Amino acid sequence: MPQAHHRPPHSHPTHRRPALVAVAHGSRDPRALRTVSALLERVRELRPGLDVRLGHIELNEPLLADTLAGLRGAPAVLVPLLLSRGYHVKHDLPQTAAAAPGGGADIRIARPLGPHPLLVEALCSRLTEAGWRDADGSSRSTGVVLASAGSRDPESAEDTRRMAEMLGERLGGVPVVAAYASALAPTVPAAVRALTARGRHRIAVASYFAAPGLFATRSAAAAPWIAADPLGTHPALARLLLHRYDEARTRPYALREQELSAA
Questions:
Q1: Could you give the CA distance from residue 179 to residue 160 in angstroms, rounded to a whole number?
Q2: Cβ contact 129:122 at 8 Å
Q3: Residue 15 binned pLDDT confidence (cut-offs 50, 70, 90)
Q4: CB within 8 A of 15, min separation 6: which ones?
Q5: pTM of the entire structure?
Q6: I want to staple 176 with a disulfide (CB 3.0 to 4.6 A). Which of 135, 155, 164, 169 is the partner?
Q7: Contacting residues for 134 by C-beta, under 8 A, at least 6 apart
Q8: How far from 187 is each of 14, 119, 180, CA to CA, in Å?
C-alpha cells in the first residue's frame, strides 16, 4: 500500500491566492479608519473571493503584526496604503513581516502606491469635485499645491515631486508645487506664497493623502481658493491597490530593503 504524503504544517497549495493586507499608517482622526475600511470594501467588490485584510503601522487596530498573526503563516501580500517610499515601507514593513509566523517566508511586500497615473486620475477627480474646471489648466492665474505628509527620506520627496509633475501635465501645464505638512520644505503656506509671487492668485490645494487626518485638514485650511478632499475611497485608488497586489505576486518573497528602494 503506497505511503500517504502529508503536507508540512506551514505549506500551502501553490494555487492559493495570497491574502491582500492593506497597510495603513493609522490616525487619531476617526474618519481615517472609516475611510480605509470603505476603500477595502471597494477592493473586495472588484475582486470577489480575495481575502482582503487591514493592518496599521500604529495608532489604530488592528495593528499589522496582529493581522499577520491571524493569518497563521498563510501567504500574504502587504500593500502599503502609503504614497511614496520612506521609512515605513523600507524598514517597518520588512521587520514586521520577518517577525510574523513562519518568519515571513510567505509574505511579499508591494511597492507604495505612488507615483502612478491612477493617482493622477484620482487627484484630478477630487480637484474637479472641489470646483476645478478644464479652463483653469490654461489660465495664467491658476496654480496648484500638491500637499503631502512629508518624509525625511529623499526618495519620498522625489516620488512626491514626480507626482506633482505628472499632475501638472494632466492639468494642461499648470504649475504644480509639491509641499509638505511635516519634515520638509516648502510647507503648504510657503508654496502658496511662492505661486502668488509668480502671479498665480487662484491657487488650489490637491490633497495627496490616502485618508482624512490632521495633516490633510491643516493643508486644506491653507488653500486660498479651493481645496480637494483626500483620495479616500476613489475607485482609482481601489484599482491601484489591486494593481500593486498583482505586481507583487510576481516578485520574490521577502523583498530586501535595497530592492524596495530601487523599485
A1: 9
A2: no
A3: low
A4: none
A5: 0.89
A6: 164
A7: 172
A8: 48, 21, 5
Mean pLDDT of the chain: 90
Q: Is the pLDDT of residue 12 over 60?
A: no
- Average pLDDT over every residue of 69-86: 94
Write the DSSP string, 193-236.
HHHHHTT--EEEEEE--SS-SHHHHHHHHT-SS-BPPPSTT-HH
> Which band of pLDDT confidence, cut at 50, 70 and 90, is reported for residue 248?
very high
For β-strands 76-80 and 176-180, DSSP reports them as unpaired
Cα(135)–Cα(128) distance, rounded to whole angstroms?
Answer: 11
Integer Cα distance of 185 and 103 in angstroms = 39
For 181, residues 6+ apart whose C-beta sits below 8 A from its C-beta are 147, 148, 149, 150, 187, 188, 215, 216, 218, 219
Task: Please name every residue paired with 53 in a beta bridge, in sequence order, or none if there are none.
Answer: 21
Dist CA 18 CA 13 (whole Å) = 10
Q: Assign 250 a pLDDT band (cuts: 50, 70, 90).
A: confident
Q: Are 108 and 18 in contact (CB under 8 A)?
A: yes
Q: How many residues does the chain have?
A: 263
